[in-house]
Structure formats: C-alpha cells, structure tokens
Amino acid sequence: MWSDGDVSEPGHDGSDDGKDDWDSNERLVGLMDEDRQVVGEDFADLVFAGQLWRDRRFVSCRFTEADLRGLRTERCEFTECDFTGADLGESEHRATAMRACVLTRATLTRAHFRGCSLLGSQFTDCRLRPLTITDSDLSLVSLGGADLRKTDLSGLRMREANLVATDLRGAVLRGTDLSGVRLSGTRLENADLREATVEPGSLRQARVEGARVDLITAVGFATAHGLNVDLTGTDL
C-alpha cells in the first residue's frame, strides 16, 4: 500500500522521552505538502518507505541514510540533494528530476525511472543492478566505475556523461546519445551500440571486443585506428 506523506518517528514511545524528535518530525511532515518547495532541510535517517509523492520540490536537502525503499514519485524535483547511503531500492519514479544530486553508496536495485532527468547527478559506489531506466536524460551524469552489466540503456540521452571504468559488458545502448561521453577504461564487451550516437575516436579508450555497432560507427572506429577503409560499392 502506498502511503502519502507519513514519516516514521523512530524512538517515539508515547513518553516525554523523544519529544524533541517527535516535534521535529511533525514539522517535517508539514513541509511535505504537494506543490511546496523545501530548501535545506535534513531528512537524514528518516523512513519514507512505500510512500507516494507528487509534485514535491526539494533543494539542497539531506536524505542521507534515509529509508526510501519502494518510494513512488511523480513530477517531483530534487536539486543538489544528498542521498548518501539512502535506500532507494524498488522505488519508482515518473517524470521526476534528480538534478546535480549526490548518490554515494546508495542502493537503487530494482528501481524504475521513466521520463526522468538525472542531469549532472553523481553515482559513486552505488548498488544499481537490476535497474530500469526509460525515456530519460542522463546528460552530465557521473557513473564512473559503476556496475551496469547487461543493463538496458537504449534510447537514453547520456551526453557528456562520465563512464570512466564503467562496466557495461552486455549492456544495451541501442540508439543512445553518447555524444561527448568519457570512455577511458570503459568495458563495452558484447554491448549493443547499434544506432548509438558515439564518437568513434572515444571508443579507442574503451574495451569493445564483441560489441555490436552499425556500419558508420565501424568505419569511423577503423579510421580512428589509422585504417584506410575502401567503401567502393557501398551506399556510404
């Protein structure tokens, strides 16, 4: 069952002990109304598991170590928020923006993002697999060193993303916009890059054995390696 707006008050047992925590959490509940912008608040260690949030906006807020498992958001905005150690496993997000947020050691296993923007957010040492992302903008996202093996990232906008040392073996990147991405040490073995927008020269920095590409990318990759490709008789 999705609940809307309740926050757990750990440690409250009905006595005066913990009254400060109760009052503080009551104040936070009042901040969680729809169509309200919350700036600079601390939601660290609080429990929001299984809730439904619509049209909420958070700026520079802390959700460190918060329990957000199963959270469902619709048209929410998180700007420069800190999700260090947060549990976002099995959460679902539709038309939500998480811009320039920090996610360090966060859990996102079985999370779903649809029509979202993760512009400029940083993912460090996060648990991501399995992860579902569709019709979303991951431009300028930092996923350096992330484990995204066999993840379907097809059709996403990932312009200028940091994919240094990212493990994308067997991933599906078909039709993905990878313009300007950093691919130093990226593992792309057996990945599907057909119809992707990618600079062939940048692929030289990645491991691409067995990766599937279309003819244009293959020619560009060969040229970047100094080969003189004879296209006589082709339509190119």
Strand content: 5-15%
* CATH class category of the largest domain: Mainly Beta
Question: What string, H for helix and E for strand, traces the elements in order?
Answer: HEEEEEEEEEEEH
The Cα radius of gyration reads 21 Å
User: Within the CATH hierarchy, at the fold level, what is the topology of the largest domain?
Assistant: Pectate Lyase C-like
Total of DSSP H or I helical runs spanning 4+ residues: 2
CATH architecture of the largest domain: 3 Solenoid
End-to-end C-alpha gap = 56 Å
Alpha-beta content class: mainly beta
Identify the overall geometry: elongated
Helix content, binned percent:
under 10%
Return residue spans where pLDDT drops below 50 for at least 5 consecutive residues: 8-24
**Sheet with the most strands, sense and barrel status:** 5 strands, parallel
Strand order of the largest sheet: 2-4-6-9-11
β-strand number: 11
Report mean pLDDT, rounded to a whole number: 87
The protein's oligomeric status is single chain
